[in-house]
Amino acid sequence: MVSHSELRKLFYSADAVCFDVDSTDIREEGIDELAKICGVEDAVSEMTRQAMGGAVPFKSALTERLALIQPSREQVQRLIAEHPPHLTPGIRELVSRLQERNVQVFLISGGFRSIVEHVASKLNIPGTNVFANRLKFYFNGEYAGFDETQPTAESGGKGKVIKLLKEKFHFKKIIMIGDGATDMEACPPAVCIKDANIFAGCTFVFLIYLFIISLFFFETEFSLCCPGWSAVA
């Protein structure tokens, strides 16, 4: 069992904190909101649920959903302008406090860079600290696929990004915060903390769920927007 003081020590010793975005930093799932704009919400929402649970490989799920949505550049721009993502209560304060302590903050998302960069700007996180998927469009603005070379486009991608950050910046301890299967894939090499239990793994990278932070670290109003988070699988 991990004590209150141990969790505090863990956070105060971190060199960097990496956040998932959809249903973590923001209340929404970006791809589901895009599906609403394009009129295919119901079918895509179920596919998103399966992808988050790890029932299907992430790249396969992303490919299938985007093939159904077929978002144009104009529709993506309209989503951001007319239905901007809503920050999770307390996330702005959490990021600000980390930055005040000179802890580097990164966003690592399986969502779309155009949306994630909008979130990053609200949190004063530079674009260089954003890792997300890129949509591709034809010259007339129609959907042309996504950049499959991005690490976040496939299962295990977030772990690859964390490994890259550790090697590039020589971080000794990185915390990854998220809610889905692609976040859990940071372990291994991470030490995972789930329901306050530590499992064997590398001592450098930690995967910690938001409810643990809310209860044991900042004690802010960083509320949980998904009711299932109290029993994260």
Automatic annotation (TrEMBL):
CDD domains, per database record: HAD_PSP_eu
Record-level Gene Ontology MF annotations: L-phosphoserine phosphatase activity; magnesium ion binding
Entry GO CC: cytoplasm
Record keywords: Amino-acid biosynthesis, Hydrolase, Magnesium, Membrane, Metal-binding, Serine biosynthesis, Transmembrane, Transmembrane helix
Superkingdom per UniProt: Eukaryota
Reaction(s) catalysed by this chain's protein: O-phospho-L-serine + H2O = L-serine + phosphate; O-phospho-D-serine + H2O = D-serine + phosphate
GO biological process, one term: L-serine biosynthetic process
Active site: residue positions: 20 (nucleophile), 22 (proton donor)
Cofactor(s) required for function per UniProt: Mg(2+)
Residue intervals passing through the bilayer: 198-218
EC supergroup of this enzyme: hydrolase
Pfam family, one: Hydrolase
Pathway(s) served: Amino-acid biosynthesis; L-serine biosynthesis; L-serine from 3-phospho-D-glycerate: step 3/3
EC numbers: 3.1.3.3
Function statement: Catalyzes the last irreversible step in the biosynthesis of L-serine from carbohydrates, the dephosphorylation of O-phospho-L-serine to L-serine. L-serine can then be used in protein synthesis, to produce other amino acids, in nucleotide metabolism or in glutathione synthesis, or can be racemized to D-serine, a neuromodulator. May also act on O-phospho-D-serine.
Family to which this protein belongs: Belongs to the HAD-like hydrolase superfamily. SerB family.
PANTHER family: PHOSPHOSERINE PHOSPHATASE
Protein name as catalogued: Phosphoserine phosphatase
Organism annotation: Macaca fascicularis (Crab-eating macaque)
